[in-house]
Design brief:
alpha+beta, globular, Glutaredoxin, about 45% helix
């Protein structure tokens, strides 16, 4: 699982707050994932994100423009393995 957090270069600490909440959710669920924090306007444009911070889980933009709650992050993380299981059943 790969989680990217993208925010504007001039943002104060919103990206770091999202990063802390993502790490807390991963720790509580005992899940391992790659987590990256980007302060890059070009990356925002490439992903069609207009308001930061944005949370991208496995190349899908899940949240943009706000800091998510830990319970919301847990639902995104828990949803991912079920999707992969369904995908394998179809293929």
């Amino acid at each position: 699982m790969r989680i990217d957090i993208i925010c504007k270069p001039e943002s104060d600490n919103r990206g770091e707050r999202v990063l802390a909440r993502v790490r807390q959710a991963l720790e509580e669920m005992d899940v391992r994932a790659e987590v990256h924090l980007f302060h890059d306007a070009k990356k925002m444009i490439d992903n069609r994100i207009y308001v930061g911070p944005a949370l991208i889980v496995d190349d899908v933009v899940r949240i943009s423009g706000r800091i998510p709650e830990v319970r919301e992050l847990k639902s995104f993380i828990a949803e991912r393995p079920r999707y992969l299981q369904r995908y394998r059943a179809v293929a």
